[in-house]
Amino acid sequence: MTASSAVTTGTLEVPDARLYYEVRGSGPLLVLVGAPMSAASFAGAAEQLAATNTVLTTDPRGHFASPLNDPNQDSTVLARADDLARLITHLDTGPAVVFGSSGGAVTGLALAQTHPDLVTTVVAHEPPLRELLPDADAHRALTEDIIATYDTGDVIGACRKFFAQASIPIPEPMLTQIFGGDRDPQQVTSERFWFAHELRHTTGWVPDPPLLRAIPTRVIVGIGADSTGQFCDHTSRELASALGVEPVQFPGDHTGFAQDPVAFAARLQEVLDLP
User: Fold this and answer.
1) Residue 248: what are its φ and ψ, rounded to 5°?
2) DSSP code per residue over 93-136
């Protein structure tokens, strides 16, 4: 869609944190957000979408270049939604279309509920909303067991349990390769924060479907074509059912935006009917 575009970086002071963000392109504001995924995770898709839009990406609070004043503070969904609201207001080019994936999809839904004037459309790509599931109690217990396992120092064991709960197959050698041995210190710090201060808040957040149906913000629920049967496939379908909408399919699986950003960005353009 586009050749390399200039990237403007900045920081914004918000309550209890300093947010790092990147801006590409020009035109209507489009926000790409994850949790815990960083701005770098969306760089490929942002590069494509900058041909038609001002694209905002950010490191969520507590991760990478967005430090918290107190690193032991929890990252709640409402705090992250407030961060997005402040970023959109700071850029002064809104209202925005917000694409959120995984925990970022939960953030986007909370933003729509609390600041519907700032967001015209939310694309919630595979939000892990366990409380919508009929077996939410069992998943809640699994999440606490995963966190407790990580707290013991058994990183590989915790990640094994996490991917099992998510129904994402990870071969044991790959699990050991990714989460064992020498690792990037920044990645480890981000991971530790996510397990200790973010995971339970994200998966435990409960959306308000009647409110989401009543506000003017359009909500689109996205599911990866290769995510069939996975945890976030089920949670996304439950959300779509509660909203009375049909989920839309995107290329790849839970991280399709990073696996094939060109195809993913093209599909997002199609879904949003952007210029």
Assistant:
1) -110, 150
2) --SEEEEEETHHHHHHHHHHHH-GGGEEEEEEES---GGGSTTH
pTM (two decimals): 0.96
pLDDT band at 181 (very low <50, low <70, confident <90, very high): confident
Q: Helices 155-166 and 136-151 sit at what angle, rounded to 10 degrees?
A: 160
| 41: DSSP letter | G
Residue 33: φ, ψ to 5°? -140, 145
Structure tokens belonging to residue 2: 């586009």
The answer to whether 52 and 25 have CB atoms below 8 angstroms apart is yes
Q: Are 104 and 118 in contact (CB under 8 A)?
A: no
Write out the H or E segment, with its range, that includes residue 20: strand 17-24
The alpha carbon of 69 is separated from its chain's Cα centroid by a whole number of angstroms, namely 22
Q: What is each CA distance from 49 to 57, 100, 107, 145, in whole angstroms?
A: 12, 15, 21, 39
Tell me the longest C-alpha to C-alpha distance in the chain: 50
Q: What is the pLDDT of residues 10-25, one digit of tens each?
A: 999 999 999 999 999 9
Q: How far is CA 261 from the centre of its chain?
A: 15
Q: And the tokens for 133?
A: 């599931």
User: Tell me, what's the pLDDT at 275?
Assistant: 40
